[in-house]
Specification:
Blueprint (H helix, E strand, L loop, with lengths): L9 H14 L4 E5 L2 H9 L2 H4 L4 E5 L4 H4 L2 H11 L4 E5 L13 H6 L3 E4 L3 H10 L4 E8 L4 H14 L4 E8 L1 H10 L7 E5 H7 L4 H8 L3 E4 L3 H17 L4 E3 L11 H10 E8 L3 E10 L8 H4 L15 H5 L23 H4 L4 H7 L19
Parallel strand pairs: 1-2, 1-7, 3-4, 3-5, 5-6, 7-8, 8-9
Antiparallel strand pairs: 6-11, 10-11
Helix pairs in contact: 1-12, 2-17, 8-13
The structure holds iron/sulfur cluster.
């Protein structure tokens, strides 16, 4: 398949690995920000092919994983109402809230539907004018533009029975929070290529300079990741800390201007809680005042729902790179994809699920476990 197969070429992968092995002289800790990259790294065994000196830390880049428990509880409350058709992507249905998930709400008679696009939810609203249709809008800068466009269309078309439960998050403030943590071990970042294809790279030079970390925009296929690691290690060995784009076939410096304009119109920046991490200032988006009529939190008065995260799940430490999934005592025993205790085991992009699916059950606990210290 074009644009896939040529980025999985074993011979080219070997050459990149040889270059990395020849360049490394001392230990380095790199964080891949995106859950899709984590999945690819574990699936292809890239972390096991790298020199022992290069450690990949799996960052908080899975949208399902970082959605806070209280937002799940708000979704459960809204979805339970008889007048509501609650629409969501499928991976949110199994994320445990307090005591139950959206599948259970559906089993109890709630009208919970899996959709493949926010526009499907808008169509359902148009076809059911006597019902309230709510779409669960979560994710990073990648899923935010179509969600913004859908709310924009709802307003333009006068579809008043459509609203969105929004929990969008932004990557650059998370990088800032990770680097500001006293327990931070991260020395460089593989920035998420798809996020940068929307937002560009304009927010990164200041972060790279302030924290003196290389930030290399990286794609998702094995060669993309190896090239990102190669460029990052080269910078680290030279004592450099610049922003570099290793995913130029998809990312332009300015990103996607049309998508950014839509985001600016529909959303406004807000503080946002990240599951297991806590509130990170300016790290999220909510609907702006102009679109408040379509804000499900406001429409269904669930703004005041507050939930404490369960203590037994250590996904917060996983998401901060302080713990590898297999170092959690519940991993593979109490907690599996069929019986997830935390969101990092539910989502296909979650680090715990990736370790479980690709049989990293037998890895011994390594030296990376740290005392849990919240980022903020
Ligand atoms: S293995 Fe399960 S309990 Fe442990 S951190 Fe991951 S999701 Fe949480």
């Amino acid at each position: 398949m074009k644009y896939i197969d040529e980025f999985q070429d074993p011979e080219l992968a070997r050459r990149l690995l040889d270059d990395i092995h020849a360049t490394v002289t001392r230990p380095w800790a790199l964080m891949e920000v995106c859950g899709g990259q984590t999945h690819s790294i574990i699936r292809h065994g890239i972390d096991q092919l790298l020199p022992d000196e290069v450690e990949l830390i799996h960052g908080p880049g899975c949208p399902v994983c970082v959605t806070p428990l209280e937002v799940i509880d708000k979704a459960l409350e809204i979805a339970s109402r008889p007048e509501v058709i609650f629409c969501s992507f499928g991976d949110m249905l199994r994320v445990p809230g307090t005591g139950r998930d959206l599948f259970q709400v559906r089993g109890e008679g709630g009208d919970v539907r899996v959709v493949y696009s926010p526009l499907d939810a808008l169509r359902i609203a148009r076809e059911n004018p006597d019902r309230e249709v709510v779409f669960f809008g979560i994710g990073f800068e990648t899923t935010a533009p179509p969600n913004a466009m859908t709310v924009h269309q709802a307003r333009k078309q006068g579809i008043r029975n459509f609203s969105m439960l929004v929990s969008h998050v932004r990557v650059p403030p998370a990088i800032e929070a990770i680097m500001s943590s006293p327990t931070c071990r991260v020395q460089a970042f593989l920035a998420a290529g798809h996020v940068c294809s929307v937002m560009g790279v304009g927010e990164y030079p200041e972060l790279a300079e302030r924290f003196r970390v290389p930030i290399v925009v990286t794609g998702f296929e094995p060669l993309d990741i190896l090239e990102g690691v190669r460029r990052t290690v080269r910078q680290l060995e030279r004592g450099e800390h610049t922003v570099d784009n290793a995913y130029a076939r998809a990312v332009r410096a300015e990103g996607n201007p049309a998508a950014r304009a839509m985001l600016e119109d529909v959303f406004e920046v807000t503080d946002r809680a990240w599951r297991g991490i806590g509130v990170i200032p300016d790290s999220g988006w909510r609907l702006s005042a102009k679109y408040r009529d379509h804000d499900a939190e406001h429409r269904f008065s669930v703004e005041d729902i507050r939930t404490r995260e369960p203590a037994e799940c250590r996904s917060g430490e996983v998401l901060q790179g302080l713990l590898k999934p297999h170092e959690c005592a519940a991993f593979g025993t109490l907690c599996t994809p069929r019986t997830p205790l935390g969101a990092t085991m539910v989502s296909s992009e979650g680090a715990c699920a990736a370790y479980y699916l690709y049989r990293r059950l037998d890895l011994p606990a390594g030296p990376t476990a740290r005392e849990a210290t919240p980022v903020v």
